[in-house]
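[Amino acid chain]
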Amino acid sequence: MACAVTVWTLCACGASKTQTDGAQQEKTPAAYAWVADSLKNFTVLDVRETGPRSAKMGVRLDFNNPMSLAFELSQLHAHLLVDGQPCFEITSPGTLIISRKARETYLTEVQVALAEGANVFSVLNVLRSRNRPELTLDFSARVALRGGALGAVIHKTMSLDDYLETERLKAVLAGLSFEYKMLGMTLGGTLHGFDLVFLDLDGQNDASALLEMDLECTNMAQLLPEMHLDASVKVDDRQAFDFASKYDLDIKPGRRQYYIPVTLRQSAEFNPCLLLNLLRDKAEGERYTFKLSMDLQMLLRLPVGSKTLEYKDIPLTVR
């Protein structure tokens, strides 16, 4: 059954609405279409928290205005969407003055908060290595000629898929070696890294994920251990979330890829907006610091006993 929705038709002097069947649509007034088209790029520079679930975000906006008219943008409101679902809400109280016939870059600061009903792990979905979701920025703003005359609202949806082409969360452990001796037997190996394969959101603070673990085991003799993982991921040395394997892994000799179902839970003290730092522009990497690390516990179960190996501050590299 078709449902009636509201379609707004905007003009420079105001707005009117009509009813139609189909999906909701938001359209930029034809007279101002060139304004929406002049915004060419949106880049995250840094994120600094202002509350438990809010932050200020430095952004770079690239405009190419071909017209002989200067204009101003105000009342910016946007959503960062993952597969069409709002993840973060972005607002700006300021006004940008865009010069006439100019190709310019503007640095500004916006307010960002977790969108209502969004899962705190939503942004991690854009970093999985397979079947990556669509990342888009859906925004509106008031546009007017310089001085505020002939105001109207423009709307634009921008794809941010360029981030997904080069960015993913990869735990590079630089060959984390371990060795366990018991009753004259030795179990050794190297943990090369983790990769996020799949993420399923549960409620607002929990998620289930599938991790790929690159593990090499040597000197096992006849030992066939089981392994259980517990870890805490930290952002700038602050605990962000924990994950634990759902069941023990059967470890075999040689270098293998293991697929591990895990549960994730957010730390109550962590601001999820800080995860947007994962999307910041690499060109600004020296200007803003952002550290990812992990504390890891590996529980090895053997026929002759068990042993917990602990590692602190393992660096995680975004590449």
Observations:
- Residues 1-25, 165-169, 284-288 have pLDDT under 50 and may be disordered.
- Residues 72 and 216 are 58 Å apart (CA to CA).
